[in-house]
Amino acid sequence: MPEAEPAVAPVLLDAGRYSVSGLLAEVAQPRGTIVALHGGGMNAGYFHGGAAPELSLLRIGAAAGWNVLALDRPGYRASAALAEADQNFAAQAGIARAALADFAATHTVGAGFVLVAHSNGFKLAIHIAAAEAAEAAEAGSGALLGLEGSGVGLRYQPQRYGIHPDVPPPATAAEAIEVFWGASELYPADTLRGRRGFLEPSAKGESAEIHTWPPSFPSLAHRIRVPVRITMAEYEQWWTSDEGELAAIGRLFTAAPTVETCLLADASHNISLGWAARPYHLAALAFAERCRLRATLAAAAGDDEAAGLPQPRQRGRLSGV
Q1: How far is the C-alpha of 195 from the C-alpha of 301, rounded, in Å?
Q2: pLDDT value at 318 more than 50
Q3: Looking at residue 303, what is its pLDDT?
Q4: Are 263 and 275 in contact (CB under 8 A)?
Q5: Which domains does the chain have, with CATH numbers?
Q6: Measuring CA to CA, how many Å separate 192 from each of 44, 89, 174, 196?
Q7: Counting Cβ atoms within 10 Å, is residue 201 exposed (0-12), middle (13-18) or buried (19+)?
Q8: Beta partners for 261?
Q9: What is 20-85 written as a DSSP string?
């Protein structure tokens, strides 16, 4: 008999002053837990397949033995009413870490957490990973094994609407789709027609960090001490994205034991909603397995050096996978 499709259910986590909602695909004995963080103007449904169920990170990850927890980021859905002081990414990172601590206290996590994050979710994930590295003792949220992120760079594209004040907004619906989504043929047809419930009003305060991100990115990246994988879409609309730019981004993660980069073919900014989602999610899952293996070997030997594992440095790149 064919295996039953992994169940995906709503989840609500306690993050102190806030509750954090999301979607959870849970398995009985997880290899680890993938934590998916969506971008601006979306919700956790961004990672759940849109118009084509086979694209869903939750289904793909659970079928391979991983929990997949897609959070509605702080400022969305259950936590939409953030206080003004909590609307920046640094504060949101504390809320997200508290939610993960609650998840670890009430669910089996497996080997630990791997963050898979997109756009503003990637910015949040970098803050989370930097905060984890800054603390000498665990905060009770479980071990952070690695970080895979897409849709964030160092330099915005020239003449980008929403970034440069002299660039006018799209004049028609077709132009808006091209600006914010890219070519329609990169997506299942119903994704752009039906929206499938994954769109949300952007969180308050989110746009305030658009221009502060490029100068703050390097100092945050320097602090991260887990393996990192960075993916850029071939047809990225927000950021400058080519091999040279990817290499420059990778060099920022000076304390990460390994850094991989990928320029993903046939994808635009919203990777997890397009046809490229399945190969992207499979590659993210393979990265999670490498993070799990590294952590397992390190734990068995006592530390990375005793295990003969590479010390922090960039480890080249993988392209197109």
Answers
A1: 48
A2: no
A3: 56
A4: no
A5: 8-301 (3.40.50.1820)
A6: 17, 29, 11, 9
A7: exposed
A8: 230
A9: EEEEEE--SS-S-EEEEE--TTB-GGGGTTTT-GGG-HHHHHHHTT-EEEEE--TTSGGG-S--GG
Question: Is residue 321 pLDDT above 70, yes or no?
Answer: no
- 10 Å CB burial of residue 74 (0-12, 13-18, 19+) is buried
Strand partners, 37: 71, 117
Is the pLDDT assigned to residue 310 strictly greater than 70?
Answer: no
Is pTM beyond 0.70 here?
yes
Torsions phi, psi of 117, nearest 5?
A: -135, 150
pLDDT(319) > 50: no
- What is the DSSP secondary structure assignment for residue 284, as one 8-state letter? H
Tokens of 69: 């927890």
Structure token digits, residue 214: 């490029």
The better pLDDT of the pair 197, 245 is held by 245
Q: Which helix (H) or strand (E) holds 261?
A: strand 259-268
Residue 19 to residue 139: CA distance in whole angstroms: 18
CA distance 210 to 52: 31
Residue 194: per-residue pLDDT: 63
Q: Kindly report, residue by residue over 224-241, the tens digit of the pLDDT.
A: 999 999 999 999 999 998
pLDDT digits (tens, 9 = 90+) for 284-298: 999 999 999 999 998
Both structure tokens of 221: 């990246």
User: Two tokens at 100?
Assistant: 């993960």
**2 by DSSP, 3-state: which?**
coil
Q: Read off the pLDDT band of 193 (50, 70, 90).
A: confident
- Rounded Cα gap, residues 11 and 22, in angstroms: 5
